[in-house]
Amino acid sequence: MTQGKRTPWSRREFVARSSRALAGLVFLGREEPSQSASPVALVKNPDKSAALKRALELMEDLDFAQKGIYLKPDFNSPHGFPASTDPDMLRDVVTQLRERNCGKITVAERSGMGITREICEKIGIPDLAKRLDFSLLPLEELPAEQWRRALEEGSHWSKGVEVPDWLAAGAPVVQICNLKTHRFGGHFSASLKNSIGLVAKHASAGTRRNYMAELHSSPDQRVMIAEVNQLYRPLLAVMDASRVFVDGGPEAGDLAYPEVVAASRDRVALDAVGVALLRLHGAGGPVSRGPVFEQTQIKRAVELKLGSQSPKQIRVLTPDDESRNVAFQVMAVLEKEEEKK
Questions:
Q1: Residues 6 or more apart from 20 whose CB is under 8 A from it?
Q2: 120 with 126: CB under 8 angstroms?
Q3: CB 141 within 8 A of CB 117
Q4: Which of 188, 189, 209 has its CA nearest to residue 197?
Q5: In the 8-state DSSP scheme, what is residue 267?
Q6: Closest residue by Cα to residue 39 from 23, 21, 59
Q7: Are 13 and 282 within 8 A, CB to CB?
Q8: Residues in a beta bridge with 289
Q9: Where are the domains of the chain?
């Protein structure tokens, strides 16, 4: 298994860099971020239940009260975490939402490597749904009248896409994404890529158009991934980077263990932090090259104004010295690559 190739900062270096942290904030970029900078909560802790709880505490003004939530995990395949969402993380996110007085929770997914319901059964999600009283919605089971066309103009999707009517109507969504390299053209998979599981595989009516075949055969795949994210803005995205793939992916690969949980409302900021974490833990291939904000998924998302426009518009919230140590290393990756531009 691949282990991280970079060592943590020395104590002297850590103390010097700590002068740049105020009240647990780590500024990315050489200038302090503006008031509009996007917060990313980052917690390093081998106990990821505790890490999730602390990350959500760090995020300001989370409001789920009385909202019916569509919860989007990553059940792309039946393979274990980090290929698919850890059922324990799903349980913990549901618990945290309930503690914040949310309404009905519906776990919505369309798997890429098989039939969603069958994949969820192999992972044990129906039993979890019964225990925690949430609904499971495999999206390919939606009737044709509950799909809506989108992105028919101004995107790299030749005929647009289809998404559930509730997504088109602006229903509240919370994401749980993993962090991994993606050898089938995505280069990496985090919150932006996770949104593809909200798109229909086949056209709901008429010709049997296969949207996923178009995506995975297109040289513009990473651009198309970003474009789907125009269709909604999640209330929150949670990244489980306790264990990651640094080579291969999305269903299998070489492992590293950042022991990090991160959360943000800004998918661009969250994915930029994720790419930096992959690099810190020895990821190779396309995700390791060039400025992080030049990664095509992120670059197109920036063009579409879906989130932070540069590292200077990200602020990392951390609860303790160990988490800040990680955040400073993330900062160094982002700053270094920005300087090369």
A1: 26, 27
A2: yes
A3: yes
A4: 189
A5: H
A6: 59
A7: no
A8: none
A9: 40-305
User: Domain 40-305 belongs to what topology?
Assistant: Rossmann fold (3.40.50)
**Rounded to an integer, what is the distance from CA 293 to the centroid of its chain?**
16
Give the tens place of pLDDT for each residue, 67-126.
999 999 999 999 999 999 999 999 999 999 999 999 999 999 999 999 999 999 999 999
Asked if residue 48 lies in contact with residue 89, where contact means CB atoms within 8 angstroms, the answer is yes
Of 129, 141, 56, 47, the closest CA to residue 93 belongs to 56
What is the pLDDT, as a whole number, of residue 25? 63
- Number of helices and strands in the chain (H, E): 12, 14
Residue with tokens 């690969």: 253
Contact 56, 94 (CB under 8 A): no
Q: Are 176 and 233 in contact (CB under 8 A)?
A: no
| pLDDT above 70: percentage of residues in the chain | 88
Task: Please name every residue paired with 333 in a beta bridge, in sequence order, or none if there are none.
Answer: none
User: If we measure between CA atoms, which residue out of 141, 135, 74 comes closest to residue 106?
Assistant: 135
In contact, 266 and 308? CB cutoff 8 Å: yes
Question: How far is the C-alpha of 223 from the C-alpha of 207, rounded, in Å?
Answer: 25
Question: CB count, 10 Å around CB of 294?
Answer: 14
**Cβ contact 72:176 at 8 Å:** yes
**What's the N-to-C CA distance of the chain in angstroms?**
33
Q: What angle do CA 176, 178, 179 make, to 5 degrees?
A: 145
Question: Which whole number is the average pLDDT over 253-273?
Answer: 97
Radius of gyration of the chain from Cα atoms?
19
| Token representation of residue 104 | 């009905």
Contact 228, 198 (CB under 8 A): yes
